[in-house]
Design brief:
Elements: H1 3-10, H2 15-26, H3 44-49, E1 53-60, H4 65-77, E2 80-86, H5 95-101, H6 104-107, E3 110-113, H7 116-125, E4 129-133, E5 140-141, E6 154-158, E7 175-178, H8 190-205
Helix pairs in contact: 4-5, 4-8
């Protein structure tokens, strides 16, 4: 069929029919979004048996349950070993946590400590390297830090949304990591911060 005949034939169809025809012709070349069933995610029992990234997330008096839930979801995505919920940080089954965690409170191991200091002391005694995500005079930019997760275990401390990491923890810290920022604001939302840092660790670990 010549091009002119093809165009004459196509022009007899309604606009919706034309769109369907061209979609069918171009279908092999169009991008397609995947369904959840195609993503190859492990089931809950399978996930619990998987090797985890040797990282413990410490949430130091996080006031927002929504932020806590978002950290749970990120920890699930990057197979974090454990989350420690400290001080006033809400714990599952807090309603706000469950809304943003979307089930990640079942897949990610967690414990609660009434004091962040007690949690850090336990981690320190177990041989963890303790790094706070905070702005300090000796902090190292995240993109300049090389992690060695094959040979060491890390604990990352994320502080309160307003006050940051508790000053009382400074003597127990092995250092501070800072995310470079170039805007007018002084900090990132704590759940966003956790996502950025955990992705950097995961990308180096894998």
């Amino acid at each position: 069929m010549s091009n002119s005949c093809f165009h004459d034939c196509i022009n007899t169809f309604s606009p919706i029919a034309k769109l369907s025809i061209f979609t069918w012709i171009l279908k092999p070349h169009l991008m397609r979004f995947l369904k959840n069933s195609e993503l190859g995610r492990p089931q809950l029992d399978q996930f619990k048996q998987l090797k985890k990234m040797p990282v413990t997330v410490v949430l130091d008096n996080i006031r927002s349950g929504s932020n806590v839930g978002a950290v749970f979801r990120t920890a699930d995505a990057f197979a974090v070993q454990e989350i420690l919920l400290c001080g006033i940080t809400a714990c599952p089954p807090d309603r706000e946590i469950l809304k943003t965690a979307l089930g990640a409170t079942e897949s990610v191991k967690w414990r609660h400590f009434s004091s962040t200091l007690d949690a850090i002391k336990e981690l320190k005694e177990s041989g963890c390297r303790i790094l706070a995500i905070e702005q300090a005079d000796t902090s190292i930019y995240l993109n300049e830090f090389n992690f060695d997760l094959e040979n060491e275990r890390l604990a990352l401390v994320f502080g309160n949304e307003v006050k940051g990491v508790d000053d009382a923890l400074i003597p127990l810290l092995d250092g501070c990591l800072e995310i470079p920022q170039f805007g007018t604001k002084h900090s990132l939302n704590v759940s966003v911060c956790a996502g950025v840092v955990l992705w950097e660790l995961f990308s180096q670990y894998k």
